[in-house]
């Protein structure tokens, strides 16, 4: 949620940590959804998750180092040998977490949109978090 692939203050830090612990000979790839770091950050809030997942699968299928399978750490559920997740929404979420950075306008905008109409077609087709939000008192949504 608002992370991006390469920023040292975001997933770039995780990538560097893994590389440091596993060694320089280990291939580590951080998935980028947007065309820039800013677009990648915004893609964590807005878009259609199915389209993003298709893009990620296509990207991963073109990386020669991954052709025989891979281990993954992340916020998604592709076919992998091992999956280590950090707070991933396997069955959906019943609340939208607070923004890590209170000055992050895109996060605040996303939270406002979700809180004012999580099950509307517009929000469901634009806001990533709304697409896996599950109101426990309205499961069918």
UniProtKB/TrEMBL annotation:
Q: Which UniProt keywords apply?
A: Hydrolase
Pfam families, sorted: Palm_thioest
SUPFAM superfamilies reported for this sequence: alpha/beta-Hydrolases (SSF53474)
Q: Which GO terms describe its molecular function?
A: thiolester hydrolase activity
Annotated protein name in UniProt = Uncharacterized protein
In its UniProt entry, the species of origin is given as: Rhizopus delemar (strain RA 99-880 / ATCC MYA-4621 / FGSC 9543 / NRRL 43880)
